[in-house]
Design a protein that fits this description.
The protein is mainly alpha-helical and about 375 residues long. The protein contains 18 helices and 5 strands. The protein has helices at about 20-25, 35-45, 45-55, 65-80, 90-105, 110-120, 125-130, 140-155, 160-175, 205-220, 235, 240-250, 250-255, 275-285, 290-305, 310-320, 335-350, 355-365; strands at about 10, 15-20, 175-180, 185, 195-200. It has a 3-stranded mixed β-sheet. A two-stranded antiparallel sheet has the order 1-2. A hairpin with a 6-residue loop joins strand 4 and strand 5. The radius of gyration is 21 Å and the shape is globular. The two termini are about 25 Å apart. It binds zinc ion. Zinc ion binds near residues 208, 212, 239 and 242.
Length: about 375
């Protein structure tokens, strides 16, 4: 089983542990007290650390660098966050972790954030982004059908009728869309069903998750003549397209206007609250984790209003500090930066294209490396 660079935690009472470590131990279900004790045992006996040290284990990881990463993050993720031990922040260790991210994501993390801080995304973009979340749907099934019909029609229009039929059959049989409190996400659980869990009823969120579901179908499940997909790394590239489609084609989707795709708005419409929160944490941080949590909370209120719960704010706070110590403000998990960078890159790709319908189909089929 591959150990992905995911951002999920498992929580037990007030304890949390990164799923990556749990996967590594080959334990998927820690929901009982007994299993929880087992987790402690694996830590105490050094079993977990041995796996992180063992060079022969590298092939269990989606990318060989993740083993080093989990090893370096062990004092923060296991000792501080799971065992509540008083381990101090280590700037040298932080730099090493960040160097892995820079290498993996092929970015200069500090440079990107410095540039962003100098030229923040405009208030106008932020207003447009917030406004786009005002399109709510009444019926989750109807809204899902609205988007999928748009995609089927688009595929047929672009001579991909075979893929359109296969996608329709698959989605009718396997797709499950439901509400859940907290965070929206899509996943492929044990079977081959695709679950989408939505915490709100906005079209942009639903479309975003459906793009993931379609992408994954064509990447992992669909077998068709001449169908070869780009073999890029999912951790790096899976957010840009979902955000671009949800924001730039929202009106086209709502009116099933396929040809309107060609005249998509070239201006930025998506606002990355993540990088904005990073920037604010760097500007206004303190040594007090509670203060930093409040910063995240206040910032998120600007986007979520009364939908923001303490639980959700905590989820994001943890997400930013993933792999790092709470008592620092310069190092954050840069996957969030990929929302910002990935969107810019996909927008440039579409702006440079004079056949956007074709490009959109190629992207959904994962023929294009994103
Ligand atoms: Zn997403």
């Amino acid at each position: 089983m591959a150990v992905w660079l995911n951002y999920g935690y498992l929580t037990y009472w007030d304890k949390q542990v990164l799923k990556n470590y749990v996967y590594l131990l080959g334990m998927k279900n820690l929901a009982t007290k007994k299993k929880m004790e087992k987790m402690h045992q694996h830590i105490q006996t050094g079993h977990l650390m041995n796996l992180l040290d063992d060079e022969a284990m590298w092939y269990h990881f989606e990318d060989y660098r993740f083993q080093d990463l989990l090893h370096l993050a062990y004092p923060y993720e296991i000792q501080v966050k799971f065992l509540n031990q008083g381990i101090s922040n280590d700037p040298e260790r932080n730099d090493k972790i960040l160097a892995i991210f820079d290498d993996f994501f092929e970015i200069d993390y500090r440079k990107v954030l410095e540039e962003y801080k100098k030229s923040p995304q405009s208030q106008e973009t932020k207003d447009t982004f917030v406004h786009s979340h005002e399109y709510h749907f009444d019926d989750i099934k109807d809204a899902t059908k609205l988007f999928l019909d748009f995609v089927y029609d688009l595929f047929v229009d672009q001579w991909h009728e075979v893929e359109a039929i296969a996608l329709r059959e698959y989605m009718e049989e396997k797709l499950r869309v439901e509400y859940t409190a907290g965070i929206s996400w899509s996943t492929v659980p044990d079977g081959d069903e695709i679950y989408i869990q939505l915490w709100n009823s906005t079209l942009t969120t639903l479309i975003h998750e459906l793009v993931h579901a379609i992408n994954r179908y064509f990447r992992y499940t669909y077998v068709g003549k001449n169908h070869s997909v780009c073999d890029d790394n999912l951790t790096k590239s899976n957010e840009g397209l979902a955000n671009y489609v949800a924001h730039h084609f929202l009106k086209n989707i709502m009116s099933n206007d396929i040809d309107g795709v060609e005249s998509a708005n070239p201006d930025p419409l998506f606002f990355s609250m993540y990088i904005d929160i990073y920037a604010d944490l760097q500007r206004y941080w303190s040594i007090d984790p509670k203060h930093n949590f409040d910063l995240v909370y206040q910032k998120m209120l600007e986007f979520e209003w009364d939908l923001l719960s303490d639980k959700k704010a905590k989820f994001y706070y943890e997400r930013f500090y993933k792999f790092f110590h709470y008592e620092q403000h310069t190092h954050f998990y840069p996957k969030e930066m990929m929302y910002y960078l990935g969107y810019q890159w996909v927008r440039e790709l579409f702006n440079a294209s004079n056949n956007k319908k074709r490009l959109l189909v190629e992207c959904l089929l994962w023929h294009v490396c994103l």
